[in-house]
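Exercise 3.2. Students should predict the tertiary structure of the chain below and write it as structure tokens, then compare their answer with the key that follows.

Predict this chain's 3D structure.
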Amino acid sequence: MDRKDFSIAASGEVIRVGRPGSGYDAFVPHPLPPRIEWTDDLVRSLSAADRAMGRLGGVGQTLPKPHLLIGPFKRREAVLSSRIEGTQASMSDLLLFEAAPSQEPHVPDVREVWNYVRALDYGLERRTTLPVSNRLIREMHARLLEGVRGEDRTPGDFRRSQNWIGPPGCIMEDATFVPPPPERLAEALDAFEKYLHEPSGLPPILRLALIHYQFEAIHPFLDGNGRLGRLLITLLLCSWSILPEPLLYLSAYFERHRKEYYSSLLAVSQKGAWNDWIAFFLRGVAGQSMDGVQRANRLLQLRGRYHLRVESARASALLVQLIDYLFEAPAVTVAQVKQRLGVTPRTAQAHIDRLAAEGIVREATGRKRNRVYLADEILYAATDDSIDRDSIQPVT
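Answer key:
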């Protein structure tokens, strides 16, 4: 890390660590909040993001069964957030793994993506008894790295050694960014946690932008910082009651604009370019909120068509329940359907066969035993990115 890249307007201080001539430079961010320059562009961006978020929140409040959409949404987020860090597993890989985790072979990265879902579920449930805090962050981190790459890098514990950010395989001397040294980490994390809890006059969406930057600048773990920083966005949206359900996820936007995502974060550290980062973040909130509205409507319309198809055929109420279950988990096994509907294996298979005959599910493994059935249209409705979501404008 070259201290010459950091101007006097930087959002923290560059410090020298170690002995003169043999040490290294590291960056320690100033405590939040920074001074915000309220330009007309920033106010317009904030207003657009707020309106779009309101639309998405309205969808969450009016859904007859909000949990039907949460499953596909959060799994898409897990795939895309993990992809930013280099994984290759797809949504279908994740769904097939969840339906039959003991079956081999699996895509090597899929367990990492699955851990993302587990960490998010844990955080959403745990926040009812424990506020979003450094302790909760550590507990989520332990689940994020359990049994995958990085499990040897102290899951659930803040780092006690120096880490750095740069091209794959680079050494510290070639790093783009070196976060606070271990001896300054507790101080930075204490200030971070204090900001999470203290009252603020800033709009909550803007605070999220500040918090996401700060977490990434502190980089408190040896691995998993990016994924956990993005998890925190969803967790805080629900904890602060900005959204009634976890329906907004920004990783699709960050993944599409990966270069700008990283450069905007770095520019805050080097130049104090808060407004540019906040504007980038707010554009993501606006675009992904409207994406969420459209994606939710697409899934609801599909569910309505499926209901009409089976109801017109005088199907049992259990078949309708199975359709709704597919919107929670678009890949299922006979054993899962048996347990969910409370029926015998034979009846569960008969209901699955009925949906297969309707073209709603297909057998995805080619096996004679331990089969997994996938609802392709639900998967497509949840993951299709053929529309340029950045062009979607919030409705006033």
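Discussion points: The chain has 15 helices and five strands. Residues 387-396 have pLDDT under 50 and may be disordered.
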